[in-house]
Amino acid sequence: MVIFDNLPLYLEAFLQTLALLLLTTVLALPLGAVIAAMRISPIGSLRATATVYTEILRNTPLVLVFIFCFVVLPILGVILPFMFSAVLALTLYTAPFFAEAIRSGINGVPVGQAEAARSIGMTFGQTVTLVVLPQAIRSVIPPIINVMIALTKNTSIAGGFFIFELFNSGRRLVNENGDQVILALVGVAAFYLLITIPLGQLADFLERRVVIRR
Amino acid sequence: MNAPGTPLVVLDHVNKHYGDLHVLNDINLTIRAGEVVVVIGPSGSGKSTLCRAINRLETIDDGTISIAGEPLPSEGAALAKLRANVGMVFQSFNLFAHKTILQNVTLGPIRVSKKSKAEAETRARELLERVGVQSQADKMPSQLSGGQQQRVAIARALAMQPSVMLFDEPTSALDPEMINEVLDVMAGLAKEGMTMIVVTHEMGFARRAADRVVFMADGRIVEDTTPAEFFDHPKSERAKDFLSKILSH
């Protein structure tokens, strides 16, 4: 059967998908936090920059961002390894989604908390990192994990750009096993679920653990 | 420290609008070190806005506000430094919901004043004892009553060793039986010579503890006088009307 015959191949592709997911999250989540902080900052130019970036990237098809990183950047003389370019494209695209998730959580923290922090002399940065973000975390976890689940599926675009991840492995196995197309694809889907279902459970678990009473 | 009697907070021709509403209308006010000034007036008179403008939680349209001779900085580190010197107590307490009572009081000294944790905790426990909630130090804010939370909020502000304290309707969100425990702490502070600006509806506190009463209506300062003079011989019709409404029961 195609799934068991090709387990090493699936596994290789699965690890590549996982690598794309983790590398992008590690880069895009802090970037998203910075963008979210910029969007609530008292400085108008920072707010404007963050808003423009968010709106452009969030409303652009991911494929276009990939084409930018894999085609336009090399034309401009910036030549990166494929994996680099793929993580760059996914990070640029995903950071605004993380930013919006974080911002919605921040907006859920009563404004008096920030006022109290500022009135004891905290800077804007301290107010955000010491008082607002720690309280936003609980309501931010579910939307952040949703973004990660969407990101997991979005990594499949990299399969069209020279990265051998799950979607790409599916394409190859379908070509090589014309008689077992459905099974080959079921195998791909199962490996995606191996990531996304535990993510959903992690969201539930974390949400229950980090409770802030008011 | 500022010597008693020197001007500490000075508002000079301060104006602020919310759209068409002229919420602060040409406010001139000088508060001297050691003074306790109670600001009273009907809802919407601008008294809370005045209080919040002094540490720039509200911006003003024109005029100047200066503290200890320094005009309020517009943003950034200088403003943060100034705010550390101006304690603020809010109507809704605003204790940090994710920190224990002790951490609420030590957060500013550790992170803003760069004190050691041990030093900040020793001082915080003294302050909590002074406001009568030392036994609650390790609880979370939501486990305390409103009156206890507000006393912690006062301790949190005092931990920064401010030279002036602002109180924005500190007892308005409290159940009646908890109001006095907060007012007692405030009266104690006043007696020790803390400079205080108190926006409140507590007329008894104004009479007992205030050096001056500032009566505001429609964004203006209508009267600025001693408590005895204000309550017994109000000059303006607006103040007479206000007092007749609140003192008739």
From TrEMBL, chain A:
It is a multi-pass membrane protein. One of its GO terms (cellular component) is ATP-binding cassette (ABC) transporter complex. Pfam families: BPD_transp_1 (PF00528). One of its GO terms (biological process) is amino acid transport. It is found in: Cell membrane. The chain crosses the membrane at residues 20-41, 62-84, 181-206. GO terms for molecular function: transmembrane transporter activity. This is Amino acid ABC transporter permease. It comes from Subtercola boreus. The lineage of its organism: Bacteria, Bacillati, Actinomycetota, Actinomycetes, Micrococcales.
TrEMBL record, chain B:
Its main location: membrane. Signal peptide: none annotated. GO terms for cellular component: plasma membrane. It is a peripheral membrane protein. Pfam families: ABC_tran. Belongs to the ABC transporter superfamily. This is ABC-type polar-amino-acid transporter.
